[in-house]
């Protein structure tokens, strides 16, 4: 099964960019990489996903390495509302997602 | 759109009781999943479905049953509740390649 590795925690100052890394060296060539976040006491929220090229949406950008062994979620200007646990997850057959422990992001005012 | 609706939001069960957690989505999503999240932990996949009439097991299926008779509904049944099943349960749905939309969760306590 594809495994991902993320730092347990990160800190960022408010209104500064945040780069959240993820290593996924064992994913297959057809596994999309999805990112979710979970705010305190809420269910997870979809952020973004991609396969090979960089992706942008209103919430974030996703930069995927050319060899697909890693990716980086970019929040362009962190706000206090971005404080959450961020999960990097490969999409498996049947649209299965196995969540790890993610990265807990603290945003400092 | 209501999105993904889970009921009840809170439930207390006695050990050995059975119950069904309800999950309904109004987005015509083919994929649906059930997760549990223990305090301070990540989510673990219990069961999932790729369409009506098709279900399969995830990481932690023991003690739970599911069925998918319609596209909209994906109930999770606890057969005989145990204290180890105290958790927050999340239901989610998606299109085939899209991101999942999660419900707001059911907080279950088994005493």
3D architecture notes:
- The complex is a heterodimer of chains A (109) and B (111).
- Chain A has 109 residues and is mainly β.
- Helices cover 0% and strands 44% of the residues of chain A.
- In chain A, the strands form two sheets. In chain A, strands 1-9-8-3-4 form a five-stranded mixed sheet, with no helix packed on it.
- Chain B is mainly β and 111 residues long.
- The mean pLDDT of chain B is 94.
- In chain B, strands 2, 4, 5, 6, 9, 10 and 11 form a seven-stranded mixed sheet that branches.
- In chain B, strand 4 (31-37) and strand 5 form a beta hairpin.
- Chains A and B meet through strand 4 of A and strand 4, strand 5, strand 9 and strand 10 of B.
Model regions low in confidence, pLDDT < 50 over at least 5 residues of chain B: none
Into which percentage range does the β-strand content of chain A fall?
35-45%
**Gyration radius of chain B, rounded:** 13 Å
User: Largest interface here, residues on each chain?
Assistant: A-B, 23 and 26 residues
How would you characterize the largest beta sheet of chain A?
Answer: 5 strands, mixed
Mean pLDDT of chain A: 90
The percent of residues in helical segments of chain A reads under 10%
Gross morphology of chain B is: globular
- The SSE order of chain A reads EEEEEEEEE
Low-confidence stretches of chain A: none
How much helix, percentage-wise, in residues of chain B?
Answer: under 10%
Task: Count every beta strand of chain B, where a strand is a DSSP E run of 2 or more residues.
Answer: 11
